[in-house]
Amino acid sequence: MKQLMLGNEAIARGAWEAGVTVSAAYPGTPSTEISEFISNYKEIDAEWSVNEKVAFEIAIGASIAGARALVAMKHVGLNVAMDPLMSISYPGVTGGLVAIVADDPGQHSSQNEQDTRWLAIAAKVPVLEPSDSAECKEFVKRAFELSETFDTPVIIRLTTRVAHSQSLVTLGDRNDIPLKPFDKQHGKYIVAPAYARRRRVVAEERLGKLKQFTETTDLNSVEMNDTSIGIIASGICYQYAKEVFPDASFVKLGMVYPLPQKKITEFVKACKKVYVIEEVESIFELQIKSWGLSVTGSDLFPRIGELSSRIIRQKITGTAPELLTLGSDVTIPIRPPVMCPGCHHRGPFYILRKLKLRVSGDIGCYTLAASPPLEAMHTSICMGASIGMAFGFEKARGKEFASQSVAVIGDSTFWHSGLTGLVDIVYNKGYTTVIILDNSITAMTGHQNNPSTGMRLNGSPAPALDIKKVVEAIGIRRVVEVDAYDLKELERVIKEEVSAPEPSVIITKQPCLLIKGIDRPGNAFSVDPQKCTGCRACRVIGCPAISFVNKKAVIESSLCVGCGICADICSFGAISENDEGMDA
Ligand SMILES: Cc1ncc(C[n+]2csc(CCOP(=O)(O)OP(=O)(O)O)c2C)c(N)n1
């Protein structure tokens, strides 16, 4: 049977067919759906882990215990999981161990454009890269075989276009793989230097064997056609190039590390002109050039952002077809992302802006507070960094600076990697105030459960960890919970806590309004044009329901969810809640 599937859905299907029994992941675009699809297969124990490092460690443990295990994450997640990856590379595996890492060329939803192939090379771990959904499924199965044959973790590199595009997949049956024995294996899994030195040798020997394998495997195919143009590509770049030059000769790389040096050398020699087409970094090109071969790559194709059929055609032929347009003269206004109407993150940032505090922010929906009109965040670097960085501010500028600055972090991000920063503040006697925005969900990536939501990946009930109790348990004495909509109380508490001569934690609470079953806070609000002075004070919260017509504020009732923040801000009493049934 054939089915149209997203790349991520096909990865999940591949895991099921491959007999995987354990899967662990932390959400991150463009990888998130992999685990959501996997959770539909009852044979697989699938979890949202607290972060990528833990997810990787769970998969390693499951592999050593004899199961086939899969771990999934976005590209920057691999940075968090780099220690377990580097450390399991020498020991290898028992049951197959496959990591799916989804890169984001073009930075659609990411802080950088890093290329997982570099990290895999550093870890001496083989990498497969599928170019469509059918290959996503097949490559997962092949990766498990490879992992067990060569005693190595295997990485599958995806990119956004493959993870999020649909194509046909032929479904297969599940291959139930019995657990392998779990024993000590003479220190294989003890990386103390005496054992690890021996495994270093084994890892090099393994790489040698993989170099032979990559020459003969059908994962790497050569298509000899017109030899005036030769193209070396993998993943979506292969699809783009094939669309533009169907008659050219190709090396299609499915195993992208290690590369088939002999195969590529013969190909380059047989073609008149060879283009290496790859997204993000020049990793193929550098290796191929280091073998003394002449190819064209980064001197022609941009290294920044995604490639496309159009870019490839334009760069090679010098011409490209006109871009398709909507055939309309209407210019569509640019609409930058904004917080949803009624988002409870708005209130705390309004107050932080009002109090002119320096805000060490983090990554989540609340990062939108950095953009106009709120502009209430000074920094946002990587997940969990807000707390350590705010403590860094304090160290650099003196303790009194702690009364002028705060760290702000979401609930999922706090569990992911914020908690250790807070432990550091307690241990090293900081004063910094931390605001945890608890909206009871991992909203940014599409509403995944996390340790405080009371539910697991498959929606089954779980113990809901109490952020307040955890924070108190590590020694924070000043912990305050505040209703995120209560601006007066927020202002009072923030002022009090930043001036306290010890660290404090403020937990703002209100569930994300997009969580199923959550009621809107109230009726829609409207503006009395007689009272509105057009001062635009309400504009600063950046609510999409508020606009200005004839210099007066207007609230679009179909967008307003009744949070009332704008009414609290208005000094002229011009905004009030509609009566029951008045709003759309
Ligand atoms: C290392 C890493 N893993 C995953 C992500 C993807 N990601 C960005 S923010 C976020 C979680 C946001 O949740 P939360 O902190 O609860 O804030 P919310 O969006 O709910 O306001 C995730 C998973 C990332 N950017 N970096």
List keywords for this structure.
Rossmann fold; seven-stranded mixed beta sheet; 584 residues; alpha/beta; binds thiamine diphosphate
Evaluate the radius of gyration: 27 Å
Major beta sheet summary: 7 strands, mixed
By secondary-structure content and strand pairing, the structural class works out as alpha/beta
What count of helical segments does DSSP give? 19
Low-confidence stretches: none
Average residue-wise pLDDT: 96
CATH T-level topology of the largest domain: Rossmann fold
Distance between the termini: 46 Å
The unique ligands bound to this protein are:
thiamine diphosphate
Specify the overall morphology: globular
Number of strands: 22
CATH-assigned homologous superfamily of the largest domain: Thiamin diphosphate (ThDP)-binding fold, Pyr/PP domains
Give the amount of beta strand, in percent: 15-25%
- Structural domain tally: 4
CATH C-level label of the largest domain: Alpha Beta
Assign the CATH architecture of the largest domain.
Answer: 3-Layer(aba) Sandwich
What fraction, in percent, of the residue positions are helical? 25-40%
Strand order of the largest sheet: 3-2-4-5-7-6-12
